[in-house]
Input
Amino acid sequence: MAWLTIGVQLGFVAGTLIIATTNLADLINTRIVFAISAVLAGIANVALVVTPGGFATAMVFRVLSGVFLGGVYPPGMKIIAGWFHSNRGVAIGVMVAALTLGSGSPHLLRSVFVAEWETTLYISSALAVLAGGIVYFLVKDGPYDVPAVRFNPRYIFDIVRGRSSRLVLFGYLGHMWELYAMWAWIPTFLVAVYGSKSLVDESLNLASLMTFLVFLAGAVGCVVAGYLAERWGRCVVTSLAMAISGGTALFIGFIPLDWGWVIGIVSLIWGASVVADSAQFSTGLTELSEESYRGTALTFQTGLGFLLTTGTIRLVPALSDSAGWGAAFAFLAIGPALGIAAMLKLWALPESKAMAAGRR
Output
């Protein structure tokens, strides 16, 4: 299970690396990159059902899904950034909320189609193809979209060399240390809590439904954090979100498993805070990087973040098996702690005034 999840992450890293080094999201119309990638990701996803084979075949299609998703998420943020100058944090927050809701929707489908996992893949793949069509045919380029005028594969090094953009990157990595490991293993943890309990005459699996509600809380958290960041500053809001999520990670796994309702409430708090800061890191990077290479910067940032997640996704089940859920989830709090340190250091720099209209 861990390797099937990691396969997507590694594929995403490969896809984003290709896009970042070739400036593809800046040199080619971003909507075309998004649309083609979304359709191909949907095809790779549904291929798990229609193609015979075992674990090796599944891994190939999981990696391919990740490769093509690398052309969906970062370019999607670039498209949104092209439409907003002020309140960009709110706009990208709404998009990441959609990402979070989309990531959780298969769990809602699974809560209904408990014994028909193929149906979940059919529907989620169809939605991916629909997304590509919506972006290509219904979305237009924004007034603040600035395409790159030349190929510059070395721009990713400029991101690392710049003090402010480097600190945003470090803060984002601290956030990603926790996020995808939490998303990957909270469903298994909730199964340990709720077992096979169902609602509505055993037709609605409780663990899968609770998992979806955790993602739904995250979607709400993204939007709320976007509004707060425009008023309080991105450094403040990202630090606050990481303090809440990291603090929750420290103790949720130590709550007795028979305290189902307590764990449910704490899980919702964790779900809301663990992704709330994500859009603000990305928005901050768009404000601190060169406009014509915005897509390259976002793709490079997310690619590094997803590469980091492969380690924590693999380590959480190992720690859970050896020391229990408490130690496994508490281990994830390391990332938010380091992320807070990076963002507080960024707050002290004068360059940070370029974010959130000077609110940093």
Remarks:
- The chain has a mean pLDDT of 90.
- The CA atoms of residues 194 and 207 lie 6 Å apart.
